[in-house]
Structure formats: C-alpha cells, structure tokens
Amino acid sequence: MPRPGYCLSLTATGATVVLLAYRGFEGSGADWVHGMLTVLWSLLMIARLTAITNQAEPIVPAQNLAQKIIRSLWQKHDENNGRTLDRTLNAGYALFGTIVFSYAAWQIYCAAFPAQQMEIDSLRDLASASSAPAYWNTLNLFHWGQGFMTILSLIMMAFVLRSYAGERSAARGALIIMASYAAAGFLFFSSLAAPLDLYVNAGLTGNGIGSWAMLMGTYPAKTAPRLFDLLLLEGGVAGLGLLAVAVFIPLGAIAMSAYEEKADTLISACGMIAGLCLLLSVFLPCTPALGAYLALCAAGLFLAWGAADLTPVAYG
Amino acid sequence: MLSAARGETRIRYAFLLAALSCALGLFFTLMKSPSARSDAYLATSIEYSQKSEPGRALTAAYKAVNLDPASLRAWQVLSRMLQESGQSYKARKAEQMALRLEKSGDNSLPVYAMPADFKLSLLAAEDTDIR
What we know:
- The complex is a heterodimer of chains A (316) and B (131).
- With 316 residues, chain A is mainly α.
- In chain A, 72% of the residues lie in helices and 0% in strands.
- In chain A, α1 runs antiparallel to α11 and α3 (65-88) packs antiparallel against α6 (132-165).
- Chain B contains seven helices and no strands.
- In chain B, α3 packs parallel to α5 (72-84) and α4 packs antiparallel against α5 (72-84).
- Helix content of chain B is 76%, strand content 0%.
- Chain B is elongated and about 70 Å long.
- With 131 residues, chain B is mainly alpha-helical.
- The interface between A and B is large, with 62 and 49 residues.
C-alpha cells in the first residue's frame, strides 16, 4: 500500500503543475509562485529526510519470540531506510545537483556579462542615471532570484520523488499516468498557436541580448518564441549543453538499468517517454502552461529515475 | 546505527540544502517584481494627486514608468500628472508614447528604450527643464 508521504508528494506535484499553469511564472500576479514552490518542496524534503533518518526506538533486549519478531521488523525498517537513502543520495543525484547549480550560476554570469551589448547603447547613454538602472537592477535581481528558486525546487523535487520511487509497485501506477499525460500533453501543446503577448519575458537579460531584435525579426509576425530560443538567449550554447546533460543523467540511469535487465520494461518505457517529451517540448511556443507541462514531465522523469536507479548497497 | 554508517555528511548537506531553500523561498515570496512595484507607485501617484500634491504625484509616476516601461497605464498616468503640473508639452509627448505602445504592441519598439526615448524627444525640443 502506498505510504501517505508518497501520496502527499504526488499531490504536491499536481499542485506545482496547476500553480504554474494557472498563475504562470512571470508578471505582477506571479511574484510569489517561485518562492512558494521552493518552500513547498523544501518542507517536503525536510519531512522526507526526517522520516528516512528516523531511527527505531531502542527496545528491551529480545528475550522472547514476540520481542525478537518486533526487533527484526524494526531492523528491516532501518535497513529499508538505509537502502532508500543510499539509492537517493547517490553520486548520480549529486552530479545532477551540481550540473543544475552550474546552470544557475552560468545564467547569472551571462546576465551580468552579456556577450553582446544592447543595440540601443547610444540611447542608454543619453538617458540620465536615474532612469535605466532602476529598471535593469530590479528586473535582473528579480529574474535571477526566480531562476535560482526554480532550480532549487527542481533539485528538491528530484530528491523527494526519487526517494519514494524505490518502492516500485507504488511508482508504477504514477509512472503510467505521468507518461500518458506527457505524451498527450506534447500532442496538445504542439497543436496550439500561442499568441505573442503570452511569451515569457526572460530573454532580455541573457547572453545574446543584442540579438533579441534580430531573433524577433526573423520570426513570422505574431509568433511566440520557443523555449529553445529563450534558453539560447539566456545562456548560450553552454547553457543548453548544461541543461541537456542534466536531463540525460536520469535518462542514462534508466537506460543503464534497462540494459542490465534489472528494471522492468514499464518503468524504462515510462521514463523514456517522459524524458523524450521533456526534451522535445522545448521547441514549442513558451507559455506558462508549457512551464507546467515541463514540470509534469520532469516529475515523471524523476520517478522513473528513482525506480530504476540501482545503487549497489553495501551492508556491514 | 543508521546515521553513522550511512554517510552522515551527505544527510547534513541535504538538510542544509532543504533548510536554506526554505528560507530563501520565504524571502522570495516577499520580493516584488518590477511590474508589481510599478503598479504600487502608480497607486501612490494617483493618491498624491487626489490629495493635491502634484510634485510627489509626478515623482511617483516617473518611478512607475521607469520600473515598467511596457505598462500602458503607467504612461497614461504620467501624462496626466504632467498635465496637472502644467507641463503640457511633456504631457503630450508621454501621451504619444502611450499611443505608440498601444498601437504597436511589444513588437517594434524595444520596451526598455522607452524611458530613454522619452527623454530624447524632450531633448530634441530644446526643453531645458528635464528631470
């Protein structure tokens, strides 16, 4: 039977998706969304860590059979927790966290030292000192903060979902649903034509900020930019590479477990579908609903990663 | 027991990550985006204008426009405040910026250039009293 914490984390995933789709992640009404998501997932991670590292109460030395049975049950409980912890906080997760943090740092660096200067530098020089920095400093700080919050939420969501997915019978049901939503959502979003005023205002502080006008100039009229273009502007090719590596870490773990024929086909298939939809959906027009969809695919990917990750557990 | 043998360091790092993220997230729920602050300045400006303090209303309107140049309402309120302060030429220019914004959407004019463009148009008219 799935544990209550597992159901809670799946509910939190659903809440994340709904929040992102309804409130979006930009605009005056969505200031608090990223901070709230980070708080939510950090609380879940704290609760999950507390539960995993909670040791059994030391009991009276086992004298009769009943006490021996209870003691062995508690030892099994401790062993399971230890195994879960080893599987979840392993090198793959550490690598994933490092890569994603590096992406956040790289994004900040690109915003602080853009490769191309703004096209309207001359106009900017003419403006007095009080007008331009107010807009830029506030926007930059807020934007970087939001991006960093997103990255933190992603890392913690990965931990929480992975730690529950070790119990494969519970993970399978959720994986089927998430993979189906991933496939259906991809078909749905690729058929939508997003209007221009819904695009994410994320590209203005990126690495190739001067090319924003050029990029928009090459688009047909009234077309929304793709997430791929915004990511390219934000961090250049290096940023895209970091994100691709970050996505391929879980995919690689799933593929390796499938190769060693230790994970079952359903988990591998669902993980692959979720990962593929995640990768391909960056070529869709960028809207808040797409952000929510990406969160759903990422959650499915993390579940499959946790279910497929096979850390050899060494017990003394 | 469980903790000593199972890599206590990484558990500590994980807790640290979660606790720091919680604190940062709480801090970030309180931060306001530029467009929210711009709206707040607009409301302050209208309030000052109703209390018949045109100077403060104008300052607040300028701040609102600088924080969110893409907001149509900000430009319109700015032009109204300029009109109330008796600077009708600047008020007309601000009105023109608002009309441009309305007509072209956010495609043609780089939105972040609008405050500078406004000042430039005032410079071109040889108006010396530019704030």
